[in-house]
Amino acid sequence: DVKVTQSSRYLVKRTGEKVFLECVQDMDHENMFWYRQDPGLGLRLIYFSYDVKMKEKGDIPEGYSVSREKKERFSLILESASTNQTSMYLCASSLVRDRNPWGHYYNEQFFGPGTRLTVL
Amino acid sequence: KNEVEQSPQNLTAQEGEFITINCSYSVGISALHWLQQHPGGGIVSLFMLSSGKKKHGRLIATINIQEKHSSLHITASHPRDSAVYICAVKATHYNDMRFGAGTRLTVKP
């Protein structure tokens, strides 16, 4: 079974603090993703990475950065936490699978347990 | 307008009832997922489908590509089915998935 783990289940930080959220997967997946989940909005993609040291912005990258130094680990960084970053953060990983005619990779994602971050 | 719309947002049922959750999407897709999220946050994939129908135990998922619509059915619902059910699509022109806002299901004993 794929296992995706996140460093903390619950985290409380103060405004202005630098926050690191860590995600580790043990199945040698190429792709890793960071989402945030807010009531009524569903999951929104912050950043994703399709290879070591590679990263792509998602829908809402502002206020966040990421790091992928090793294949199994994808870190989300809040440089200066703000109250509007209080949310549930979910990490996911996937293999690269079928390539459709438009050149996009289809991928089934496996999710971590989530980190509920509160910024005071 | 969201690319993936789910209905209803909230659903309360009595144990044993047949449940249907709907998902409509507005983009071309290569696949659609139904995900389950229990209290505490963990998400698991229930189904991944690109056509027709899939069944796993008491869960059935169908998709109509022409109508851009999918349904998740739960037969003989049980309190342990209480969770948030999320529809997600792999759009053909994006490298990632797009998610519905979720349907919160509560099954009462």
**Rg result of chain B:** 13 Å
Order of helices and strands of chain A: EEEEEEEEEEE
Mean pLDDT of chain A: 87
Mean pLDDT of chain B: 90
Global structural class of chain A = mainly beta
What structural class do the secondary elements of chain B suggest?
mainly beta
Shape of chain A: globular
Let me know the number of strands of chain B: 11
Give the largest interface: A-B, 29 and 27 residues
Beta-strand percent range of chain A: over 45%
Taking the sheet with the most strands of chain B, its summary is: 6 strands, mixed
Instruction: Calculate Rg of chain A over CA atoms.
Output: 14 Å
Separation of the first and last Cα atoms of chain A: 37 Å
Tell me about the biggest sheet of chain A? 7 strands, mixed
Account of the protein in words:
The complex is a heterodimer of chains A (120) and B (109). Chain A is mainly β. In chain A, 0% of the residues lie in helices and 50% in strands. Chain A is built from no helices and eleven strands. Chain A has strands at 4-6, 10-13, 19-25, 31-38, 42-49, 56-57, 64-70, 73-78, 87-94, 110-111, 115-119. In chain A, strands 2, 4, 5, 6, 9, 10 and 11 form a seven-stranded mixed sheet that branches. Chain B is an all-beta fold and 109 residues long. Chain B has strands spanning 4-7, 10-14, 19-25, 29-37, 43-49, 52-56, 59-64, 69-74, 83-91, 97-99, 103-108. In chain B, the strands form two sheets. In chain B, strands 2, 4, 5, 9, 10 and 11 form a six-stranded mixed sheet that branches. Chain B contains no helices and eleven strands. The A-B interface holds A 9, 33, 40-45, 48, 50, 56, 58, 88, 90, 98, 100, 102, 104-114, 116 and B 2, 4, 9, 30-31, 33, 35, 40-45, 48, 86, 88, 90, 92-97, 99-102.
Itemize the secondary structure elements and their pairings.
The complex is a heterodimer of chains A (120) and B (109).
Chain A: E1 4-6, E2 10-13, E3 19-25, E4 31-38, E5 42-49, E6 56-57, E7 64-70, E8 73-78, E9 87-94, E10 110-111, E11 115-119
Parallel strand pairs in A: 2-11
Antiparallel strand pairs in A: 1-3, 3-8, 4-5, 4-9, 5-6, 7-8, 9-10, 9-11
Chain B: E1 4-7, E2 10-14, E3 19-25, E4 29-37, E5 43-49, E6 52-56, E7 59-64, E8 69-74, E9 83-91, E10 97-99, E11 103-108
Parallel strand pairs in B: 2-11
Antiparallel strand pairs in B: 1-3, 3-8, 4-5, 4-9, 6-7, 7-8, 9-10, 9-11
